[in-house]
Amino acid sequence: MSWNSSDPQLSAKLFGKNGVLEEQKSPGFKKRETEVYVGNLPLDISKEEILYLLKDFNPLDVHKIQNGCKCFAFVDLGSMQKVTLAIQELNGKLFHKRKLFVNTSRRSSKRTPDVTQQPRVPLVLEKASGEGFGKTAAIIQLAPKAPVDLCETEKLRAAFFAVPLEMRGSFLVLLLRECFRDLSWLALIHSVRGEAGLLVTSIIPKTPFFWAMHITEALHQNMQALFSTLAQAEEQQPYLEDSAVKRGTRCLAEYHLGDYGHAWNRCWVLDRVDTWAVVMFIDFGQLATIPVQSLRSLDSDDFWTIPPLTQPFMLEKDILSSYEVVHRILKGKITGALNSESHILKFEESK
Question: Which Pfam family, any one of them, does this sequence belong to (predicted)?
Answer without folding.
Answer: RRM_1
